[in-house]
Amino acid sequence: MAATTVRVFLSWCHRDADAKTALLTRLLPALGLFTDLRVEWWEDSHLTCGEKFAPAILDRVAEADFGLLLVTTDYLVSPFIREHELSRFAGPGADRDALPVRLAPLPPFGSEIDLGGLSELTMFSLDGRAYTETTGPRRTRFGIELAASIRRRALNLNRYRAL
């Protein structure tokens, strides 16, 4: 059987570059192990010389099947992310599927905090911890379990299971 191909747009804040790089070091190899899923990946570091920043990003968002949202406080307060990326993946105007991940601890969910529609979505964490709250082998486990969660969502395997 041929692998299902999905396009994943990485939405992240540049202030979180170290944590993003550390997570991807664990996540991308794990995604590459699946024989039934092929992930095509895009992030703004793939921009080439002379490309116009905003139009290129908006084009890639429009082509994406999923947005992998690396959520932190800095992510949530970025005007560009909120207007052009997050709004496409979460909230009432969303037209793309979201894969939100707690990259760093967040304020408590409550009506006084504007999470841009993310409060309605299940956000990936490992045992209730954000990626930056893990260390050592738990970081590897975070990447592996996130890959498995992405696979289940992309292949629509989150259905009833036999006991």
TrEMBL record:
Domain of life of the organism encoding this protein: Bacteria
Pfam families: TIR_2
InterPro entries in UniProt: TIR_dom (IPR000157), Toll_tir_struct_dom_sf (IPR035897)
Record-annotated TIR domain positions: 8-109
The protein's name in its UniProt record: TIR domain-containing protein
